[in-house]
Amino acid sequence: ELSAALRVEWAKAKARAEQWHEEVILLKEEMCRVLAFCDWKASWWESQADRRTDVSPELAESLGAYCAENASKERRMRASLERKWCGIRAWAREV
């Protein structure tokens, strides 16, 4: 009876370990996708700067500055997340 109980507990522990391993894999993928999205969004903002051609030069300059600022925010966000996740990503590589 004790042997059967130990096997049950071992099976439960193994299942939990496998679930956590899968969570680590999913987390690594999600972090990569978030960083890629930040890159895409920054590029998207940069591409928006010249879309309006029917505006005054002053407004065009303002729109360009607005787009550049938002692209910069996305790049700073990516850099910040990369710094925050550096330890987690290094640990997750080992898993």
UniProtKB/TrEMBL annotation:
Name of the featured protein: Uncharacterized protein
Organism: Plicaturopsis crispa FD-325 SS-3
